[in-house]
Design a protein that fits this description.
mainly beta, Immunoglobulin-like, three-stranded antiparallel beta sheet, 1 helix, 11 strands, about 5% helix, globular
Length: about 120
């Protein structure tokens, strides 16, 4: 699978009510503006989603699987109930590193998830 597929896209699309599995690369930017994978060794990653402008979460702290710690690749399998409502969702990931520090990714916006 190419880094382009794994890398954060403006919008990820999945079919509603499916048990879809996504791969996602947790990344940040270096001082030159280049994309750098976050080393997830010893970390825990959780996912959060909510419909755009909604108050209630569709997913609150779902556990992600770390597929490749050094390259920052995680996966999450959506339960069909988590994708039952079509729409645009704000999606982000909380990473708690081995020192217990919490960092939200993407750091400056949301990853958009479109459920169709």
């Amino acid at each position: 699978m190419s880094d382009e597929f794994l890398q954060n896209q403006k919008t990820i699309r999945i079919r509603g009510s499916d048990q879809s599995n996504i791969l996602y690369k947790i990344a940040t930017y270096d001082n030159d503006g280049g994309i750098v994978a976050v080393n997830l060794t010893g970390s825990a990653v959780t996912i959060f989603t909510k419909l755009d402008e909604a108050e209630d979460y569709a997913i609150y702290g779902g556990t992600c699987v770390i597929e490749d710690a050094l390259d920052g690749v995680i996966s999450y399998e959506f339960a069909s109930a988590e994708t039952a409502t079509s729409g645009m969702y704000q999606m982000w990931f909380n990473v708690i590193d081995s020192d217990g520090k919490l960092v939200k990714y993407p750091q400056h916006d949301y990853q958009w998830l479109m459920v169709i």
